[in-house]
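Now for a specimen:

…
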Amino acid sequence: MSRSRLVAAFLFASVLALIGIPALARAAPGNSASKVSTAPVAKPTVEGPVSGGKDTISLVGPSADPLTENGYVADEYFFGGTATAYEKAKPLGTDGRWKFEESRTAPYTSRMVVYRPEDPEDFSGTVYVEWLNVTAGFETPAVYGLVHNQVVREGAAWIGVSAQAGGVQGTDAIVDIAGAPPGGLRVTDPARYGALTHPGDLYSFDIFSQAGVAAAGDAKGVKPLGDLKTKRVIATGKSQAAFRLVSYVNGVQPIAGVYDGFLISSRHRSGAPLGPTSFGLPDDTVPETAIIRTDSDVPVIVVQTETDLEQFQSTRARQPDSRRFRLWEVAGSAHADTYAGPIGFTDTGDGAAEKTILDPSAANGGPLGCAVPINSGPTFAVMSAALSHLDDWVRDGTAPPRAPRIKATPSKSTGSDAPQIVRDEHGNAVGGIRTPLVDVPLATLTGKPNAGSSLCFLFGATTPFDAATLATLYPTHADYVRKFDASAGAAVKAGFWLKPESESFKAAAKQLSIGA
């Protein structure tokens, strides 16, 4: 598939989601801050590294090529065995304290993509295991696409897991993007992936558990992380994968006990059903609304955009922060944005991405040709901070900062109880996680529906200020830079930005001609 097709595919896959044989329990990974597994999970057999076919790993996202410059290797492995399906043991409530039980088993063979430091001395001990997004019928690493620079900075390993049937064998919910073939991995490269087999999404949760077992080094066969010694295994997922991770945390984690923490991004107001449904949205087998269970024994961070609050109505699933839970709502963000595509694909942390995102003259309708410029918000930078905090939380118990909620009220004008975000005099959200992009604004950044392509409603909007407004806000260039630097420093001090992104954004602000 050409690079342009890959970019288009990744964008669609990122946003369409709005759409066993028991084995001995593994030892606690790492130190006392990591949880101790008490439930058995089957040990899969791992084979690889995989080669042949088109001789390339099929994964639509940031290129793996720059990893080699940072001492990383990229490989692919098959893993399989016997997977267990779950069913609800009793009706599922809105409190998230769901009780699942094992029902039946089936054989499977799936795959995992592994990015890891080559030198064990460079490895931090943390492995991020991502539930790959499959809504388009092929797989994308939606979280890794946002945080890949931070993964490398930490010296962590990353594993992308083909947990769902759609990624392996295709699904009815396939979108034909620029000629991308339907049918999942088996059709994309039958010579390479023809041996894969998936019994269905009822088994996806246990397949994801077994991938976690392999990440911990407890599988049979080869070790996908080579000589690296895993200390922490953290699960991640965005959009449709986030819906499924809500169900995993609430019903499977108490049984399996595999993961040491969860980063969930852009969840729906409820979880996903145990089996497949169109685009992974909830059906009547799960409650309309559900929070993350409050008795979780591992840390969970949920990061939400404005789109998720208003269109997914995740405000209905808001819950207080607690000893094991944090909710971050990002002002000025959208479910998909300028970074979730060509810019993020090629971002190596050199500041070029921040310069493009910050410049209002660079705002445009994006690859989908939306009616107005798509959102150019700070989601990727906040997600990178969330990843860093979660690693610390699991590693030594250092909890992330608590974030204020975005101010939202039910809509009065339409008679609907759908949430409406309260906005300031410039049209930007009030409350939530603050960054210079909304506190020292050059544009109105929202997650409101865009127009144009059928999927543009997920990309939000950027409305650059006119010259008169900019002149009033920033009479001189020095005024703008001073205010921006102060706001960036506040975001770092509050814990919602990391220094690398902050420094890159500050450098970009200095290069703009605002107030000049």
Notes: Confidence is low (pLDDT under 50) at residues 1-38, 172-181. The chain has 15 helices and 14 strands.
